[in-house]
Amino acid sequence: MASAHAIPSLDEEFEFTAESKRRLLIGIGIGVALVAIGAYLLASGVGSHETHAVAAHGAGDHEGGHHAYKWTNRLWANVWLNAIYFTGASVIGMFFMSYNYLAQAGWSVAFKRIPEAMPAYLPFMGLAVLLTFFIAGHDLFHWTHPGLYDKTSPEFDPIINGKKGFLNTPFYVGRIVAYFGLWYFLWNRLRTFSLQEDLYGGTAYYEKSIKFGVAFLLVFGVTSSTSAWDFVMSIDTHWFSTMFGWYTLASWHVTGLAIITLTVVTLKERGYMQWVNESHLQDLGKFMFAFSIFWTYVWFAQFMLIYYANLPEETIYYRERFSGFGGIYKAPFWITLFLNFVFPFLVLMTRDAKRTNIILKVAAWGIIIGHYFDFYTNIMPGTVGEHGGFGPIEFGMILIFACGFVWSLYSQLTKANLVPKNHPMLEETLHHDI
Amino acid sequence: MSDVNGSGKFLVGIYDDDDVVLKAVKDVKNAGVRIHEVYTPFPIHGLDVALGHPRTRLGIAAFLFGLSGTLTALALTFYTEGYDWPMVVGGKDSYSPVVYVPVIFELTVLFCALGMVGTFLVSNGLGPTVKPLMYDLRTTDNKFAMAIDLGKNNIGESTIEQILKKSGAAEVNVKQF
Protein backbone atom coordinates (compact mmCIF):
# COMPACT_ATOMS: atom_id res chain seq x y z
CA MET A 1 0.00 0.00 0.00
CA ALA A 2 1.27 3.44 -0.80
CA SER A 3 2.56 5.25 2.21
CA ALA A 4 1.90 8.85 3.02
CA HIS A 5 5.39 9.15 4.43
CA ALA A 6 8.51 9.56 2.34
CA ILE A 7 11.24 7.15 3.45
CA PRO A 8 14.66 8.72 3.80
CA SER A 9 17.94 6.87 3.42
CA LEU A 10 18.35 3.90 5.71
CA ASP A 11 22.12 4.12 6.08
CA GLU A 12 22.58 6.16 9.16
CA GLU A 13 25.30 6.03 11.78
CA PHE A 14 24.88 7.63 15.15
CA GLU A 15 27.73 9.95 16.00
CA PHE A 16 28.74 10.18 19.67
CA THR A 17 30.21 13.66 19.40
CA ALA A 18 33.09 14.95 21.45
CA GLU A 19 30.71 17.65 22.66
CA SER A 20 28.29 15.10 24.15
CA LYS A 21 31.18 13.19 25.68
CA ARG A 22 32.46 16.38 27.26
CA ARG A 23 29.03 17.20 28.66
CA LEU A 24 28.59 13.74 30.10
CA LEU A 25 32.03 13.86 31.70
CA ILE A 26 31.20 17.26 33.20
CA GLY A 27 27.95 15.75 34.48
CA ILE A 28 29.81 12.90 36.12
CA GLY A 29 32.35 15.38 37.54
CA ILE A 30 29.60 17.53 39.04
CA GLY A 31 28.01 14.36 40.40
CA VAL A 32 31.22 13.28 42.09
CA ALA A 33 31.70 16.76 43.51
CA LEU A 34 28.15 16.85 44.87
CA VAL A 35 28.56 13.43 46.44
CA ALA A 36 31.82 14.58 48.02
CA ILE A 37 30.19 17.73 49.39
CA GLY A 38 27.23 15.73 50.66
CA ALA A 39 29.51 13.14 52.23
CA TYR A 40 31.55 15.89 53.90
CA LEU A 41 28.41 17.52 55.29
CA LEU A 42 27.11 14.20 56.58
CA ALA A 43 30.44 13.17 58.05
CA SER A 44 30.84 16.48 59.83
CA GLY A 45 27.37 16.07 61.29
CA VAL A 46 25.51 18.94 59.66
CA GLY A 47 21.79 18.44 60.07
CA SER A 48 22.12 15.84 62.76
CA HIS A 49 20.25 18.05 65.23
CA GLU A 50 16.95 17.31 63.49
CA THR A 51 17.72 13.63 63.87
CA HIS A 52 17.32 13.87 67.62
CA ALA A 53 14.10 15.80 67.34
CA VAL A 54 12.68 13.12 65.08
CA ALA A 55 13.89 10.27 67.23
CA ALA A 56 11.87 11.75 70.09
CA HIS A 57 8.73 11.12 68.05
CA GLY A 58 9.13 7.44 68.70
CA ALA A 59 10.28 6.24 65.32
CA GLY A 60 12.19 3.59 67.22
CA ASP A 61 9.42 1.05 66.60
CA HIS A 62 10.64 0.86 63.04
CA GLU A 63 11.64 -2.73 62.39
CA GLY A 64 14.76 -2.07 60.37
CA GLY A 65 16.21 0.20 63.02
CA HIS A 66 19.91 -0.48 62.83
CA HIS A 67 21.89 -0.45 65.99
CA ALA A 68 24.62 1.91 64.92
CA TYR A 69 23.86 4.36 62.16
CA LYS A 70 26.88 5.54 60.21
CA TRP A 71 26.76 8.41 57.74
CA THR A 72 28.09 6.07 55.04
CA ASN A 73 24.76 4.21 55.17
CA ARG A 74 23.13 7.05 53.31
CA LEU A 75 25.90 7.02 50.71
CA TRP A 76 25.50 3.29 50.09
CA ALA A 77 21.73 3.46 50.21
CA ASN A 78 21.97 5.97 47.38
CA VAL A 79 24.31 3.75 45.38
CA TRP A 80 21.88 0.89 45.91
CA LEU A 81 18.85 2.97 44.94
CA ASN A 82 20.41 4.19 41.70
CA ALA A 83 21.87 0.80 40.85
CA ILE A 84 18.43 -0.84 41.20
CA TYR A 85 16.73 1.93 39.27
CA PHE A 86 19.17 1.76 36.36
CA THR A 87 19.26 -2.03 36.43
CA GLY A 88 15.56 -1.83 35.69
CA ALA A 89 15.99 0.87 33.07
CA SER A 90 18.60 -1.30 31.31
CA VAL A 91 16.92 -4.68 31.48
CA ILE A 92 13.62 -3.28 30.20
CA GLY A 93 15.32 -2.71 26.86
CA MET A 94 15.74 -6.45 26.63
CA PHE A 95 12.20 -7.02 27.91
CA PHE A 96 10.79 -4.68 25.25
CA MET A 97 12.72 -6.40 22.45
CA SER A 98 11.72 -9.84 23.66
CA TYR A 99 8.00 -9.31 23.76
CA ASN A 100 8.14 -7.53 20.43
CA TYR A 101 9.87 -10.57 18.96
CA LEU A 102 7.37 -12.90 20.60
CA ALA A 103 4.44 -10.90 19.22
CA GLN A 104 6.27 -10.69 15.86
CA ALA A 105 5.60 -6.98 16.03
CA GLY A 106 6.69 -4.89 13.10
CA TRP A 107 6.04 -1.34 14.22
CA SER A 108 8.84 -1.20 16.80
CA VAL A 109 11.61 -2.17 14.37
CA ALA A 110 12.12 1.48 13.37
CA PHE A 111 13.66 2.32 16.74
CA LYS A 112 14.66 -1.19 17.84
CA ARG A 113 18.31 -0.20 18.13
CA ILE A 114 17.50 1.98 21.15
CA PRO A 115 16.04 -0.71 23.47
CA GLU A 116 18.75 -2.96 22.04
CA ALA A 117 21.44 -0.58 23.29
CA MET A 118 20.05 -0.16 26.79
CA PRO A 119 21.03 -3.48 28.47
CA ALA A 120 24.73 -2.84 27.80
CA TYR A 121 24.73 -0.99 31.13
CA LEU A 122 23.77 -4.16 33.04
CA PRO A 123 27.30 -5.43 33.90
CA PHE A 124 28.16 -2.11 35.55
CA MET A 125 24.96 -2.19 37.55
CA GLY A 126 25.66 -5.80 38.52
CA LEU A 127 29.06 -4.75 39.83
CA ALA A 128 27.56 -1.80 41.71
CA VAL A 129 24.93 -4.05 43.28
CA LEU A 130 27.42 -6.73 44.34
CA LEU A 131 29.96 -4.19 45.58
CA THR A 132 27.34 -2.38 47.64
CA PHE A 133 26.12 -5.63 49.09
CA PHE A 134 29.59 -6.75 50.09
CA ILE A 135 30.66 -3.41 51.51
CA ALA A 136 27.46 -2.16 53.11
CA GLY A 137 25.08 -5.13 53.03
CA HIS A 138 25.28 -5.41 56.78
CA ASP A 139 24.15 -1.81 57.20
CA LEU A 140 21.45 -1.78 54.58
CA PHE A 141 19.90 -5.22 55.06
CA HIS A 142 18.60 -6.09 58.48
CA TRP A 143 18.37 -9.77 57.55
CA THR A 144 22.16 -10.10 57.17
CA HIS A 145 22.62 -9.90 60.94
CA PRO A 146 23.63 -13.38 62.16
CA GLY A 147 22.06 -12.93 65.58
CA LEU A 148 18.57 -13.03 64.06
CA TYR A 149 18.97 -16.71 63.34
CA ASP A 150 20.61 -17.69 66.61
CA LYS A 151 18.08 -18.97 69.15
CA THR A 152 20.38 -18.11 72.06
CA SER A 153 20.88 -14.54 70.93
CA PRO A 154 18.71 -11.74 72.33
CA GLU A 155 18.38 -10.54 68.76
CA PHE A 156 16.71 -13.82 67.65
CA ASP A 157 13.74 -13.18 65.39
CA PRO A 158 11.48 -16.17 64.66
CA ILE A 159 9.86 -14.48 61.64
CA ILE A 160 13.14 -13.67 59.92
CA ASN A 161 14.51 -17.05 60.96
CA GLY A 162 11.60 -18.58 59.03
CA LYS A 163 12.80 -16.82 55.88
CA LYS A 164 16.31 -18.18 56.25
CA GLY A 165 15.94 -20.63 53.40
CA PHE A 166 15.60 -17.74 50.96
CA LEU A 167 17.34 -14.88 52.69
CA ASN A 168 20.84 -16.14 53.34
CA THR A 169 23.99 -14.60 51.96
CA PRO A 170 25.27 -17.42 49.67
CA PHE A 171 21.89 -17.95 48.00
CA TYR A 172 21.31 -14.20 47.78
CA VAL A 173 24.65 -13.50 46.12
CA GLY A 174 24.15 -16.50 43.85
CA ARG A 175 20.77 -15.17 42.77
CA ILE A 176 22.15 -11.72 42.00
CA VAL A 177 24.94 -13.20 39.91
CA ALA A 178 22.39 -15.38 38.14
CA TYR A 179 20.08 -12.46 37.37
CA PHE A 180 22.74 -10.30 35.83
CA GLY A 181 24.45 -13.24 34.16
CA LEU A 182 21.29 -14.58 32.53
CA TRP A 183 19.95 -11.19 31.50
CA TYR A 184 23.25 -10.13 30.03
CA PHE A 185 23.89 -13.42 28.28
CA LEU A 186 20.46 -13.52 26.61
CA TRP A 187 20.74 -9.87 25.59
CA ASN A 188 24.19 -10.54 24.19
CA ARG A 189 22.74 -13.31 21.99
CA LEU A 190 19.96 -11.06 20.64
CA ARG A 191 22.42 -8.25 20.02
CA THR A 192 24.79 -10.56 18.14
CA PHE A 193 21.97 -11.91 15.97
CA SER A 194 20.81 -8.40 15.25
CA LEU A 195 24.26 -7.23 14.16
CA GLN A 196 24.82 -10.33 12.04
CA GLU A 197 21.42 -9.83 10.43
CA ASP A 198 22.61 -6.40 9.30
CA LEU A 199 25.56 -8.05 7.57
CA TYR A 200 24.10 -11.20 6.09
CA GLY A 201 20.32 -10.74 5.95
CA GLY A 202 17.81 -13.57 5.75
CA THR A 203 15.21 -14.67 8.25
CA ALA A 204 17.36 -17.17 10.18
CA TYR A 205 18.49 -14.55 12.70
CA TYR A 206 14.93 -13.41 13.18
CA GLU A 207 13.78 -16.95 13.97
CA LYS A 208 16.64 -17.43 16.42
CA SER A 209 15.92 -14.08 18.04
CA ILE A 210 12.33 -15.15 18.70
CA LYS A 211 13.58 -18.28 20.49
CA PHE A 212 16.04 -16.37 22.65
CA GLY A 213 13.45 -13.66 23.28
CA VAL A 214 11.01 -16.28 24.54
CA ALA A 215 13.77 -17.77 26.70
CA PHE A 216 14.36 -14.36 28.19
CA LEU A 217 10.66 -13.85 28.91
CA LEU A 218 10.55 -17.19 30.72
CA VAL A 219 13.61 -16.22 32.74
CA PHE A 220 12.37 -12.70 33.38
CA GLY A 221 8.91 -13.93 34.36
CA VAL A 222 10.52 -15.46 37.44
CA THR A 223 13.53 -13.23 37.97
CA SER A 224 11.64 -9.94 37.68
CA SER A 225 9.67 -10.94 40.77
CA THR A 226 12.49 -12.56 42.73
CA SER A 227 14.88 -9.71 41.96
CA ALA A 228 12.26 -7.25 43.19
CA TRP A 229 12.07 -9.16 46.47
CA ASP A 230 15.85 -9.34 46.73
CA PHE A 231 16.68 -5.79 45.73
CA VAL A 232 13.85 -3.90 47.39
CA MET A 233 11.43 -5.93 49.47
CA SER A 234 14.06 -7.71 51.57
CA ILE A 235 15.08 -4.32 53.01
CA ASP A 236 11.88 -4.31 55.05
CA THR A 237 12.48 -7.86 56.11
CA HIS A 238 9.37 -8.50 58.21
CA TRP A 239 7.03 -7.00 55.73
CA PHE A 240 5.94 -8.63 52.53
CA SER A 241 3.50 -7.94 49.75
CA THR A 242 2.25 -10.44 47.20
CA MET A 243 1.97 -7.59 44.69
CA PHE A 244 5.58 -6.57 44.99
CA GLY A 245 7.07 -8.38 41.99
CA TRP A 246 4.45 -6.97 39.66
CA TYR A 247 4.73 -3.60 41.25
CA THR A 248 8.47 -3.33 40.68
CA LEU A 249 8.20 -4.74 37.18
CA ALA A 250 5.52 -2.16 36.36
CA SER A 251 7.75 0.58 37.69
CA TRP A 252 10.81 -0.60 35.78
CA HIS A 253 8.80 -1.17 32.62
CA VAL A 254 7.25 2.26 32.38
CA THR A 255 10.62 3.85 33.20
CA GLY A 256 12.21 1.91 30.35
CA LEU A 257 9.42 2.92 27.98
CA ALA A 258 9.84 6.56 28.96
CA ILE A 259 13.60 6.32 28.32
CA ILE A 260 13.00 4.72 24.91
CA THR A 261 10.47 7.42 23.99
CA LEU A 262 12.69 10.22 25.21
CA THR A 263 15.66 8.87 23.24
CA VAL A 264 13.61 8.40 20.07
CA VAL A 265 12.22 11.93 20.24
CA THR A 266 15.60 13.43 21.09
CA LEU A 267 17.38 11.64 18.26
CA LYS A 268 14.61 12.57 15.86
CA GLU A 269 14.89 16.21 16.80
CA ARG A 270 18.63 16.05 16.23
CA GLY A 271 18.00 14.92 12.67
CA TYR A 272 18.43 11.20 13.10
CA MET A 273 15.83 8.52 12.43
CA GLN A 274 13.57 10.51 10.13
CA TRP A 275 11.79 7.27 9.25
CA VAL A 276 10.16 7.33 12.68
CA ASN A 277 6.78 8.92 11.99
CA GLU A 278 3.94 10.24 14.12
CA SER A 279 2.33 6.82 14.31
CA HIS A 280 5.39 5.35 16.00
CA LEU A 281 5.41 8.24 18.43
CA GLN A 282 1.72 7.86 19.16
CA ASP A 283 2.20 4.16 19.89
CA LEU A 284 5.08 4.93 22.23
CA GLY A 285 2.91 7.53 23.92
CA LYS A 286 0.14 4.96 24.29
CA PHE A 287 2.64 2.56 25.84
CA MET A 288 3.68 5.14 28.43
CA PHE A 289 0.06 6.10 29.10
CA ALA A 290 -1.14 2.51 29.44
CA PHE A 291 1.69 1.31 31.66
CA SER A 292 1.45 4.38 33.88
CA ILE A 293 -2.11 3.29 34.54
CA PHE A 294 -0.95 -0.28 35.01
CA TRP A 295 1.61 0.85 37.56
CA THR A 296 -1.10 2.79 39.38
CA TYR A 297 -3.37 -0.23 39.32
CA VAL A 298 -0.73 -2.41 40.99
CA TRP A 299 0.33 0.36 43.36
CA PHE A 300 -3.22 0.87 44.47
CA ALA A 301 -4.01 -2.85 44.66
CA GLN A 302 -1.08 -3.31 47.04
CA PHE A 303 -2.12 -0.30 49.08
CA MET A 304 -5.79 -1.17 49.23
CA LEU A 305 -5.33 -4.78 50.32
CA ILE A 306 -3.22 -3.58 53.22
CA TYR A 307 -5.61 -0.73 53.99
CA TYR A 308 -8.62 -3.05 54.02
CA ALA A 309 -7.01 -5.83 56.03
CA ASN A 310 -5.55 -3.39 58.56
CA LEU A 311 -3.00 -5.83 59.97
CA PRO A 312 -0.32 -4.07 62.00
CA GLU A 313 2.59 -6.01 60.50
CA GLU A 314 1.52 -4.85 57.04
CA THR A 315 0.32 -1.32 57.72
CA ILE A 316 3.67 -0.42 59.31
CA TYR A 317 5.03 -0.15 55.77
CA TYR A 318 2.66 2.71 54.92
CA ARG A 319 2.80 4.21 58.39
CA GLU A 320 6.55 4.65 57.97
CA ARG A 321 5.98 6.45 54.71
CA PHE A 322 3.03 8.58 55.80
CA SER A 323 3.94 9.67 59.29
CA GLY A 324 7.06 7.80 60.38
CA PHE A 325 10.48 9.40 60.74
CA GLY A 326 8.96 12.83 61.25
CA GLY A 327 7.03 12.62 57.99
CA ILE A 328 10.07 13.08 55.75
CA TYR A 329 8.83 10.41 53.31
CA LYS A 330 5.39 11.88 52.87
CA ALA A 331 6.46 14.29 50.13
CA PRO A 332 8.21 11.64 47.97
CA PHE A 333 5.21 9.37 48.51
CA TRP A 334 2.79 11.90 47.03
CA ILE A 335 5.24 13.07 44.37
CA THR A 336 5.40 9.44 43.23
CA LEU A 337 1.65 9.17 42.87
CA PHE A 338 1.35 12.52 41.15
CA LEU A 339 4.19 12.14 38.64
CA ASN A 340 3.46 8.50 37.83
CA PHE A 341 -0.30 8.61 37.58
CA VAL A 342 -2.02 11.98 37.58
CA PHE A 343 0.51 13.71 35.35
CA PRO A 344 0.90 11.17 32.50
CA PHE A 345 -2.79 10.28 32.71
CA LEU A 346 -3.91 13.83 32.04
CA VAL A 347 -1.07 14.88 29.74
CA LEU A 348 -0.99 11.85 27.45
CA MET A 349 -4.73 11.29 27.15
CA THR A 350 -5.44 12.88 23.79
CA ARG A 351 -4.27 11.75 20.40
CA ASP A 352 -2.65 15.05 19.55
CA ALA A 353 -0.59 15.02 22.76
CA LYS A 354 0.92 11.66 21.85
CA ARG A 355 1.96 13.04 18.48
CA THR A 356 3.64 16.16 19.82
CA ASN A 357 7.36 15.93 20.57
CA ILE A 358 7.46 18.39 23.42
CA ILE A 359 4.52 16.80 25.27
CA LEU A 360 6.05 13.35 24.90
CA LYS A 361 9.32 14.65 26.27
CA VAL A 362 7.70 16.34 29.24
CA ALA A 363 5.64 13.25 30.04
CA ALA A 364 8.68 10.97 29.69
CA TRP A 365 10.73 13.17 32.02
CA GLY A 366 7.86 13.19 34.50
CA ILE A 367 7.72 9.39 34.46
CA ILE A 368 11.51 9.00 34.71
CA ILE A 369 11.69 11.33 37.72
CA GLY A 370 8.52 9.93 39.25
CA HIS A 371 9.79 6.39 39.23
CA TYR A 372 13.06 7.45 40.77
CA PHE A 373 10.94 8.70 43.65
CA ASP A 374 9.01 5.44 43.58
CA PHE A 375 12.21 3.53 44.34
CA TYR A 376 13.32 6.24 46.73
CA THR A 377 10.12 5.78 48.72
CA ASN A 378 10.59 2.02 48.70
CA ILE A 379 14.26 1.85 49.61
CA MET A 380 15.11 4.82 51.82
CA PRO A 381 12.81 4.35 54.85
CA GLY A 382 14.08 0.83 55.46
CA THR A 383 17.77 1.64 54.95
CA VAL A 384 18.38 5.06 56.43
CA GLY A 385 15.06 5.85 58.12
CA GLU A 386 15.07 9.18 59.91
CA HIS A 387 18.54 9.99 58.54
CA GLY A 388 17.19 10.22 55.02
CA GLY A 389 16.65 13.34 53.03
CA PHE A 390 17.25 14.91 49.69
CA GLY A 391 20.53 16.71 49.45
CA PRO A 392 23.71 16.97 47.37
CA ILE A 393 24.48 13.29 47.84
CA GLU A 394 21.19 12.26 46.18
CA PHE A 395 21.53 14.69 43.28
CA GLY A 396 25.17 13.77 42.76
CA MET A 397 24.53 10.05 42.73
CA ILE A 398 21.70 10.43 40.19
CA LEU A 399 24.00 12.49 37.96
CA ILE A 400 26.79 9.90 38.08
CA PHE A 401 24.52 6.96 37.28
CA ALA A 402 22.43 8.81 34.68
CA CYS A 403 25.43 10.20 32.79
CA GLY A 404 26.97 6.73 32.84
CA PHE A 405 23.75 5.30 31.44
CA VAL A 406 23.61 7.82 28.61
CA TRP A 407 27.31 7.21 27.86
CA SER A 408 26.71 3.47 27.64
CA LEU A 409 23.58 3.98 25.52
CA TYR A 410 25.29 6.34 23.07
CA SER A 411 28.41 4.24 22.68
CA GLN A 412 26.23 1.21 21.91
CA LEU A 413 24.23 3.22 19.37
CA THR A 414 27.42 4.06 17.47
CA LYS A 415 28.17 0.36 17.01
CA ALA A 416 25.36 -0.34 14.56
CA ASN A 417 23.30 1.25 11.84
CA LEU A 418 20.40 3.14 13.44
CA VAL A 419 17.83 0.98 11.69
CA PRO A 420 18.19 -2.82 11.36
CA LYS A 421 18.49 -2.78 7.57
CA ASN A 422 17.76 -6.46 6.95
CA HIS A 423 15.05 -6.99 9.52
CA PRO A 424 12.15 -8.96 7.97
CA MET A 425 9.63 -6.46 9.38
CA LEU A 426 11.44 -3.41 8.01
CA GLU A 427 8.85 -2.60 5.32
CA GLU A 428 6.04 -2.85 7.84
CA THR A 429 7.64 -0.47 10.28
CA LEU A 430 8.56 2.08 7.62
CA HIS A 431 4.92 2.23 6.55
CA HIS A 432 3.51 2.12 10.06
CA ASP A 433 0.26 4.04 9.99
CA ILE A 434 -2.45 4.07 12.61
CA MET B 1 -29.04 5.65 7.22
CA SER B 2 -30.54 8.51 9.09
CA ASP B 3 -29.27 11.07 6.64
CA VAL B 4 -31.04 9.71 3.57
CA ASN B 5 -32.66 12.69 1.92
CA GLY B 6 -35.86 13.02 -0.05
CA SER B 7 -34.90 11.27 -3.25
CA GLY B 8 -33.09 8.35 -1.56
CA LYS B 9 -31.55 7.42 -4.85
CA PHE B 10 -27.93 6.29 -4.90
CA LEU B 11 -25.37 5.27 -7.47
CA VAL B 12 -23.20 2.50 -6.08
CA GLY B 13 -19.83 1.81 -7.67
CA ILE B 14 -18.47 -1.65 -6.93
CA TYR B 15 -14.68 -2.11 -6.73
CA ASP B 16 -12.62 -5.28 -6.45
CA ASP B 17 -9.50 -3.98 -4.76
CA ASP B 18 -8.71 -1.80 -1.76
CA ASP B 19 -5.88 0.05 -3.51
CA VAL B 20 -8.17 0.83 -6.45
CA VAL B 21 -10.98 2.14 -4.27
CA LEU B 22 -8.57 4.32 -2.29
CA LYS B 23 -7.28 5.92 -5.47
CA ALA B 24 -10.82 6.09 -6.87
CA VAL B 25 -11.96 8.17 -3.90
CA LYS B 26 -9.41 10.83 -4.81
CA ASP B 27 -10.25 10.69 -8.54
CA VAL B 28 -13.99 10.88 -8.00
CA LYS B 29 -13.64 13.76 -5.59
CA ASN B 30 -11.35 15.57 -8.01
CA ALA B 31 -14.02 15.16 -10.70
CA GLY B 32 -16.33 17.20 -8.46
CA VAL B 33 -18.59 14.40 -7.24
CA ARG B 34 -19.66 14.35 -3.59
CA ILE B 35 -19.20 10.89 -2.14
CA HIS B 36 -21.82 9.79 0.36
CA GLU B 37 -19.78 6.95 1.94
CA VAL B 38 -17.47 4.06 1.09
CA TYR B 39 -18.26 0.57 2.43
CA THR B 40 -15.47 -1.95 2.80
CA PRO B 41 -15.14 -5.45 4.28
CA PHE B 42 -12.11 -4.37 6.30
CA PRO B 43 -10.57 -1.05 7.40
CA ILE B 44 -8.40 0.66 4.79
CA HIS B 45 -5.58 2.85 6.03
CA GLY B 46 -5.93 6.40 4.83
CA LEU B 47 -9.51 6.03 3.59
CA ASP B 48 -10.95 8.35 6.23
CA VAL B 49 -8.34 10.94 5.33
CA ALA B 50 -9.06 10.58 1.61
CA LEU B 51 -12.80 10.93 2.20
CA GLY B 52 -12.15 14.06 4.26
CA HIS B 53 -14.09 12.81 7.26
CA PRO B 54 -13.76 15.04 10.31
CA ARG B 55 -11.89 13.60 13.30
CA THR B 56 -13.95 11.07 15.21
CA ARG B 57 -15.68 12.27 18.37
CA LEU B 58 -15.81 8.79 19.88
CA GLY B 59 -13.11 9.75 22.39
CA ILE B 60 -15.22 12.58 23.75
CA ALA B 61 -18.24 10.29 23.97
CA ALA B 62 -16.19 7.65 25.80
CA PHE B 63 -14.86 10.23 28.24
CA LEU B 64 -18.33 11.54 29.03
CA PHE B 65 -19.78 8.06 29.49
CA GLY B 66 -16.87 7.19 31.78
CA LEU B 67 -17.30 10.41 33.73
CA SER B 68 -21.00 9.68 34.23
CA GLY B 69 -19.99 6.28 35.68
CA THR B 70 -17.49 7.89 38.04
CA LEU B 71 -20.05 10.40 39.27
CA THR B 72 -22.74 7.74 39.65
CA ALA B 73 -20.38 5.57 41.71
CA LEU B 74 -19.34 8.49 43.90
CA ALA B 75 -22.97 9.46 44.46
CA LEU B 76 -24.05 5.87 45.11
CA THR B 77 -21.30 5.10 47.61
CA PHE B 78 -21.63 8.45 49.33
CA TYR B 79 -25.40 8.21 49.62
CA THR B 80 -25.49 4.63 50.90
CA GLU B 81 -22.40 4.48 53.11
CA GLY B 82 -21.76 8.08 53.96
CA TYR B 83 -25.19 9.67 54.32
CA ASP B 84 -28.13 7.31 54.46
CA TRP B 85 -26.70 4.55 56.64
CA PRO B 86 -23.14 5.32 57.79
CA MET B 87 -21.29 2.27 58.96
CA VAL B 88 -17.89 1.83 60.51
CA VAL B 89 -16.21 -1.25 59.09
CA GLY B 90 -12.75 -2.31 60.16
CA GLY B 91 -12.12 0.92 61.99
CA LYS B 92 -12.22 3.05 58.82
CA ASP B 93 -14.03 6.33 58.46
CA SER B 94 -17.65 5.75 57.61
CA TYR B 95 -17.10 7.31 54.23
CA SER B 96 -13.62 6.84 52.87
CA PRO B 97 -13.37 7.17 49.08
CA VAL B 98 -10.26 4.93 49.10
CA VAL B 99 -12.43 1.94 50.00
CA TYR B 100 -14.71 2.62 47.05
CA VAL B 101 -12.06 3.08 44.38
CA PRO B 102 -12.81 -0.40 42.97
CA VAL B 103 -16.53 0.46 42.77
CA ILE B 104 -15.75 3.80 41.17
CA PHE B 105 -13.34 2.21 38.72
CA GLU B 106 -15.72 -0.60 37.75
CA LEU B 107 -18.72 1.67 37.26
CA THR B 108 -16.59 4.00 35.15
CA VAL B 109 -15.59 1.11 32.91
CA LEU B 110 -19.12 -0.33 32.82
CA PHE B 111 -20.80 2.96 31.90
CA CYS B 112 -18.14 3.64 29.31
CA ALA B 113 -18.46 0.18 27.74
CA LEU B 114 -22.26 0.14 27.66
CA GLY B 115 -22.36 3.71 26.43
CA MET B 116 -19.99 2.90 23.61
CA VAL B 117 -22.06 -0.14 22.59
CA GLY B 118 -25.07 2.16 22.37
CA THR B 119 -23.05 4.72 20.45
CA PHE B 120 -21.95 2.03 18.03
CA LEU B 121 -25.54 0.91 17.38
CA VAL B 122 -26.85 4.44 16.93
CA SER B 123 -24.03 5.74 14.75
CA ASN B 124 -24.18 2.68 12.50
CA GLY B 125 -27.95 2.65 12.24
CA LEU B 126 -28.21 -0.77 13.84
CA GLY B 127 -30.56 -2.07 16.47
CA PRO B 128 -33.06 -4.80 17.26
CA THR B 129 -35.91 -3.37 15.18
CA VAL B 130 -33.96 -1.27 12.69
CA LYS B 131 -33.60 -2.54 9.18
CA PRO B 132 -30.06 -1.73 8.10
CA LEU B 133 -29.52 -0.03 4.76
CA MET B 134 -27.30 -2.22 2.62
CA TYR B 135 -25.87 -0.57 -0.47
CA ASP B 136 -24.50 -3.89 -1.61
CA LEU B 137 -24.55 -7.14 0.32
CA ARG B 138 -21.16 -8.13 -1.08
CA THR B 139 -19.39 -5.42 0.95
CA THR B 140 -19.63 -7.85 3.87
CA ASP B 141 -17.55 -10.30 1.86
CA ASN B 142 -15.03 -9.18 -0.75
CA LYS B 143 -16.30 -6.05 -2.57
CA PHE B 144 -15.81 -2.36 -1.96
CA ALA B 145 -18.77 -0.07 -2.57
CA MET B 146 -18.74 3.69 -3.12
CA ALA B 147 -22.17 5.26 -2.64
CA ILE B 148 -23.01 8.54 -4.38
CA ASP B 149 -26.16 10.36 -3.24
CA LEU B 150 -27.78 11.63 -6.44
CA GLY B 151 -29.94 14.07 -4.49
CA LYS B 152 -26.84 15.82 -3.20
CA ASN B 153 -25.01 16.10 -6.54
CA ASN B 154 -25.75 18.51 -9.33
CA ILE B 155 -23.94 16.38 -11.92
CA GLY B 156 -26.04 14.16 -14.10
CA GLU B 157 -26.47 10.47 -13.36
CA SER B 158 -24.83 9.25 -16.56
CA THR B 159 -21.82 11.53 -16.06
CA ILE B 160 -21.29 10.21 -12.54
CA GLU B 161 -21.57 6.67 -13.87
CA GLN B 162 -18.83 7.48 -16.40
CA ILE B 163 -16.62 8.95 -13.66
CA LEU B 164 -17.08 5.88 -11.48
CA LYS B 165 -16.32 3.51 -14.33
CA LYS B 166 -13.25 5.51 -15.23
CA SER B 167 -12.01 5.40 -11.66
CA GLY B 168 -11.94 1.61 -11.78
CA ALA B 169 -15.43 0.50 -10.74
CA ALA B 170 -16.20 -3.02 -11.96
CA GLU B 171 -19.92 -2.25 -12.05
CA VAL B 172 -22.21 0.66 -11.21
CA ASN B 173 -25.67 -0.03 -9.78
CA VAL B 174 -28.62 2.16 -8.86
CA LYS B 175 -29.96 1.75 -5.34
CA GLN B 176 -33.27 3.23 -4.27
CA PHE B 177 -34.26 3.28 -0.60
Which percent band covers the strand fraction of chain A?
under 5%
Distance between the termini of chain B: 10 Å
Q: How would you name the oligomeric state of the polypeptide chains in this document?
A: heterodimer
What is the total number of structural domains of chain A? 1
Alpha plus pi helix count of chain A? 16
- Which class best fits the helix and strand makeup of chain A? mainly alpha
Helix content of chain A: 55-70%
Structural class of chain B: alpha+beta
On the 0 to 100 scale, the average pLDDT of chain B is 88
- Could you spell the SSE succession of chain B in H and E letters? EHEHHHEHE
Query: What's the helix-strand series of chain A?
Result: HHHHHHHHHHHHHHHH
Query: Largest interface by residue count?
Result: A-B, 11 and 14 residues
Radius of gyration of chain B: 24 Å
Number of helices in the DSSP assignment of chain B: 5
Describe this protein's structure.
- The complex is a heterodimer of chains A (434) and B (177).
- Chain A is an all-alpha fold and 434 residues long.
- Chain A has one domain (18-47, 70-430).
- Chain A contains 16 helices and no strands.
- Chain A has helices spanning 18-43, 48-55, 72-102, 113-117, 122-140, 158-162, 169-200, 204-231, 244-269, 278-309, 312-322, 330-347, 351-354, 357-383, 392-413, 426-430.
- In chain A, helix 1 packs antiparallel against helix 15 (392-413) and helix 3 runs antiparallel to helix 8.
- Chain A is globular.
- The model of chain A is unreliable at 49-66 (pLDDT under 50).
- Chain B is α+β, with helices and mostly antiparallel strands and 177 residues long.
- Chain B folds into two domains: 9-55 and 137-176, Alpha-Beta Plaits (2-Layer Sandwich), CATH 3.30.70; 58-123, no CATH class.
- In chain B, 44% of the residues lie in helices and 12% in strands.
- Chain B has helices at residues 18-30, 47-51, 58-84, 101-123, 157-166; strands at residues 9-15, 37-39, 144-149, 171-176.
- A four-stranded antiparallel sheet of chain B has the order 2-3-1-4.
- Chain B is elongated.
- The interface between A and B is medium-sized, with 11 and 14 residues.
